[in-house]
């Protein structure tokens, strides 16, 4: 019975560590230490799948990481606002160029 209890505690501890250490869209979604942010990016036209997106915050500073995948819905647009928790993208909005923050 003790072995089972310690095994369950160990599995829970490993799951918590994985939640914090492994950055991907699934762990970022459940991680309570990451807050939802809105950042901005220029994406290529004529596609709806954006890979390795370099986003900037509202002050124009590049994020320290790239968002691995962002799905779009309008291939004619190239500026987006991304609502996300690190790699987990909740939604995007297409924005006009003048709403895009200037990059530093």
From TrEMBL:
InterPro entries assigned: DUF1093, YxeA-like_sf
Query: TM segments?
Result: 6-26
Give UniProt keywords alphabetically: Membrane, Transmembrane, Transmembrane helix
Q: Which NCBIfam families does the annotation name?
A: yxeA_fam (TIGR01655)
Protein name stated in the entry: YxeA family protein
